[in-house]
Design goal:
With about 600 residues, the chain is an alpha/beta fold. The chain folds into 2 domains: about 350 residues, ABC transporter transmembrane region fold (Up-down Bundle), CATH 1.20.1560; about 130 residues, Rossmann fold, CATH 3.40.50.300. It has 21 helices and 10 strands. The chain has a 6-stranded mixed sheet with strand order 6-7-8-3-9-10, sandwiched between helices. A 4-stranded antiparallel sheet has the order 2-1-4-5, covered by helices on one side. The longest helix has about 55 residues. The protein is elongated.
Amino acid sequence: MIKDLKKINSLFSKKEKRKLAFLSFTHFASGMLDLIGVVSIAPFLAIVSNDAILKNNEWIIKIKSFLDLDYKGLILFFAIASLSLIIINQLFKFFAHWYQLYLSNSLWHSLHSKIFKYYVDQSYGWHIHKTSNELLERVQIKCNAAIAGVLIPAFTILGFLITTISLFALLIYVDPFITGLLVVCVCTFYIFVTKKFKKKLNELGSFVPTYFSKTFNLTDQAFKSIKDIKIKNNSSFYSKTFNFLAKKYAMSQVTHNLISAAPRVCLEIVTYIFIFSFIIFFILKYENFSHMVLLTGIYAFSLQKIIPAAQGIYSQYTDYKYYKPTFDKIYPDLLASKDKFEEKNFGATNVSKLDFKERIELKNLSFRYQNTKKFIFENENVKISAGQFIGIVGKSGSGKTTFVDLIIGLLDPSSGEILIDGKKINSNNLENWKKNIGYVFQSSFFADDTITNNIALGINEKEIDFNKIEKVAKIAQISDFIESKLPLKYNTIIGEDGAFLSEGQKQRINIARALYNDPEMIILDEATNSLDSETENLVISSIFKNFINKTVVMITHKVSLLQNCDQIIFIEDGSVKSQGKFDSLMHENSSFKKLVAESFKKN
Ligand SMILES: Nc1ncnc2c1ncn2[C@@H]1O[C@H](COP(=O)(O)OP(=O)(O)OP(=O)(O)O)[C@@H](O)[C@H]1O
Ligand SMILES: [Mg+2]
């Protein structure tokens, strides 16, 4: 637990630690007020049960003469004083509760924002080894479980611990023997219960992260492959698996909550046994009614506070144990996100474009994906002139998309360098270089949002330039469809992943999105392969008409489109085999010639 407390502590900034220290102070103050509340009842009980105290106790005599009160007035005074302390205590408790709520939710906000930013800021190379599900689950579920199940219980335990210890300290002062017995009983009871259920809680808790990842994957798989499920009629496979996991999780929750709550029932019974035993014990020990009333009162009030506090420590501890396996899984990311967050704040969005007027140069560039041993590209030296129409061609899986991802800095080369107009690309100017690029991906994401927001994806609605949206939609040959066929025109929602659109319409929205930022270089990765030839030609010629002197890089399997290229880069089996105009490649490269022949045969 100490090790975990250190881990928890390492997640917070200095300011947050100060706030947490204040939270512990409020718990301490609350514990002290509990103590004072209990102590304040003592004089009241004492004078009610024994009026001799009024005559003998020098403090009471002093107060009585100072306030000039009679016997009834004095009782009223102590009653009001005690009640006032109880009210102050409750008000303070309300404040402490508010502060805890405020702080725990602020921490929730801060940790969530940090971890989200941490994931979003990771490189594309990092992201291709993670699934969006996995990240969604980490940001939402695991992070929540870690905060609500481990971080907050850790601090709540602290508060309960202070209250319990201070009340036990008072009781030890009142009667060390009885209190000693009480401490031994309560501690033994909870230690026994904790030990007994430790293994079970760990076992139940270990299933929590497994449950989250399995059901997230299953849900994602099922809903994304719904067309396939309907055709194969195999939805029962998904429902059965989900049902099994959900039932196991629900039962684990029941057991966890039962383990957490059960001791309270036992302890409340034990408390009453204690109170009755006290009365009998005090009668036998003191044979003095007033003393008995006083002590029983103090013990009853103290126990009324101690039992919920002790139970609180225990139930928070079970939460902590239950969610610890989940916390352990997310802890490294929470820690890393904190460091990253402190290093740089939300980055500037107004990045200027890096000059790109002459050429892109690859020098001895090699690359392999993290999870593979074989290099896709090795020692490549390629020059691409700016302002030209570049075609990239090669068989499926030869490395075309990887090549483009490397040029634009989405993937980091394993070795070698990329120069833009002679300037080496590094982490300082990478963002400036990317500003030049409009990339139409081979497979794209569509938000369940309006056409406008899908074209200007990632831009605040208020900052979207609607004239530009119309302009790029026109260039992409989709404006006619939007304006004449859709009732809400640019405000039409297109469904999850563009479900309400055809593949060709989605491709044209995609092209419009890439053109929106006025790129210097437009990359079309099989970007028009769902279009009929006529629309395809219209889209391409319209891009050329509107982006004069800009670089257009087109990955395509359609040889007819390559004939107009200023330069073709032919990639074969992870290597740039040839570069040049269509006719010269036909003469010098037999593989290219074969590819062209096959392509003509197909068409
Ligand atoms: N994230 C990845 N991890 C490991 N290998 C990968 C990864 N992405 C792609 N590859 C491999 O790299 C090679 C080149 O892939 P790439 O996507 O660049 O091919 P491509 O020429 O664009 O193919 P296509 O015409 O089918 O789109 C393939 O063999 C592929 O299996
Ligand atoms: Mg590809």
